[in-house]
């Protein structure tokens, strides 16, 4: 989703489908190459890199913890149709974390591209693939909740249905991101020592590039938002109708005497609604700014640079929100984190105790410790203990050494 649009000193925001650095001008709407002002690592860009680094650390730790918990921790007890959904969501967020965030940070620091043509194509492809997968997995989660609430009797087929939808989501993400391999390339500017990973030369007219960006804006944001809105609107309408039927005294299928929807299912529904809302809240401002840029590129001259950086960082915050929301609604994830923290604290305490014990021991500390252990063992051991130990014991030699003795 991306970063510095411009190789002019204008801004550091890019349309969602482009890379962190800006394409070189390829139409007459851009100023001549000789009029360029070389970009620099500005104070606003430094803030962006620092904030991205903090988000990277938090998103990497939290999403890895979520992945481990669902894969081999207490999260294995999730319903069989929910577990693949959470694994896919964590995997998509980790792709964004380990591809999009480092790429954006490093590219803002270096300003121009030093990775060569092959790496330019590959990273731009992986970046868009990760963003598409993240959005489409949310769509699959919404469709799963829609089926679970409106068609509860289809629960037996939910596992296979979700697997098919996830396979479709990941395959479609791969297909939609593949044009990046052909559109982006490393371009050497004429007359200056400046190389950029850009779409320069891939579009003969400005409107073609705008159309390409708008297509990915629709697949990344508009279509997922419409599908998710439709699913949750129908769910809310269904719950409202069930509530009215219950108040009117009509019979309705319930698992408890007072609940229209089982509590566990309602809790999962609330969690997925909050996850979807975090996606909408985090990315909407950045996409709106991208639309403005695509139709009025001169907007970069009139909007402060820090606004573009701040909105992009705020969009990346969505990657950190998913594991936090999952933890708030899932006690098993919190229990896994608590157990991990306890093990770490116990290990650190044991290490500190061993260090203190070693520091108190002198040159002959080990022999003294063994002597004391031998004396205590002889004093405390009874006949039964001797038999259980195989008939062997120890005695203290006058020289101070421990010698075995057959009993």
From TrEMBL:
Q: Tell where it localizes.
A: Cell membrane
PROSITE patterns, per database record:
G_PROTEIN_RECEP_F1_1, G_PROTEIN_RECEP_F1_2
Renumbered to this chain, region (Disordered) spans 356-407
Chain ranges of the G-protein coupled receptors family 1 profile domain: 62-326
Report biased composition (Polar residues) as residue ranges: 364-380
Q: Which domain of life is it from?
A: Eukaryota
- For the keyword Transmembrane helix, the answer is yes
**TM region positions:** 45-73, 85-105, 125-144, 165-184, 214-237, 273-295
Gene Ontology CC terms, in alphabetical order? plasma membrane
Q: Which keywords appear in this protein's UniProt record, sorted alphabetically?
A: Cell membrane, Disulfide bond, G-protein coupled receptor, Membrane, Phosphoprotein, Receptor, Transducer, Transmembrane, Transmembrane helix
**Membrane topology of this protein:** Multi-pass membrane protein
Q: Which GO terms describe its molecular function?
A: G protein-coupled receptor activity; peptide binding; protein-hormone receptor activity
Q: Which GO terms describe its biological process?
A: cellular response to hormone stimulus
The entry assigns this protein to a family as follows: Belongs to the G-protein coupled receptor 1 family.
Entry protein name = Type II GnRH receptor
> Which species is this UniProt entry from?
Sphaeramia orbicularis
């Amino acid at each position: 989703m991306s970063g510095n649009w411009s190789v002019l000193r204008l801004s550091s925001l890019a349309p969602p489908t482009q890379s962190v650095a800006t394409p070189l001008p390829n139409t007459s709407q851009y100023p001549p190459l000789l009029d360029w002002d070389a970009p620099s690592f500005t104070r606003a860009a430094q803030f962006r890199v620092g904030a991205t680094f903090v988000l990277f650390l938090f998103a990497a730790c939290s999403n890895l913890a979520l992945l481990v918990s669902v894969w081999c921790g207490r999260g294995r007890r999730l319903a069989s149709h929910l577990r693949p959904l959470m694994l896919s969501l964590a995997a998509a967020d980790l792709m964004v974390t380990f591809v999009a965030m480092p790429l954006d940070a490093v590219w803002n620091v270096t300003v121009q591209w030093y990775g060569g043509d092959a790496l330019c194509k590959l990273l731009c492809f992986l970046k868009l693939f990760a963003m598409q997968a993240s959005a489409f997995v949310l769509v699959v989660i919404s469709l799963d909740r829609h089926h679970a609430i409106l068609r509860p009797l289809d629960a037996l087929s939910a596992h296979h249905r979700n697997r098919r939808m996830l396979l479709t989501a990941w395959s479609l993400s791969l297909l939609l991101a593949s044009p990046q391999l052909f559109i982006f390339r490393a371009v050497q500017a004429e007359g200056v020592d400046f190389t950029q990973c850009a779409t320069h030369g891939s579009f003969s007219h400005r409107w073609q590039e705008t159309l390409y960006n708008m297509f990915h804006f629709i697949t990344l944001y508009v279509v997922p938002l419409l599908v998710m809105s439709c699913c949750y609107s129908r769910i809310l309408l269904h719950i409202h109708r069930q509530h009215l039927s219950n108040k009117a005294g009509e019979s309705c299928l319930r698992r408890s005497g007072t609940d229209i929807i089982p509590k566990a299912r309602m809790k999962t529904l609330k969690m997925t609604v909050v996850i979807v809302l975090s996606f909408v809240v985090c990315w909407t401002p950045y996409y709106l700014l991208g639309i403005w840029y695509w139709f009025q590129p001169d907007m970069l001259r009139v909007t402060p640079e820090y606004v573009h950086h701040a909105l992009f960082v705020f969009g990346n915050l969505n990657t950190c929100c998913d594991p936090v929301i999952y933890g708030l609604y899932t006690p098993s994830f919190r229990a896994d984190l608590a157990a991990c923290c306890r093990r770490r604290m116990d290990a650190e305490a044991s290490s500190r105790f061993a260090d203190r014990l070693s520091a108190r021991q002198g040159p002959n500390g080990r022999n003294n410790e063994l002597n004391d252990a031998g004396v205590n063992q002889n004093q405390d051991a009874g006949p039964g203990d001797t038999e259980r130990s195989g008939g062997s014991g120890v005695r203290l030699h006058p020289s101070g050494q421990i010698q075995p003795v057959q009993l």
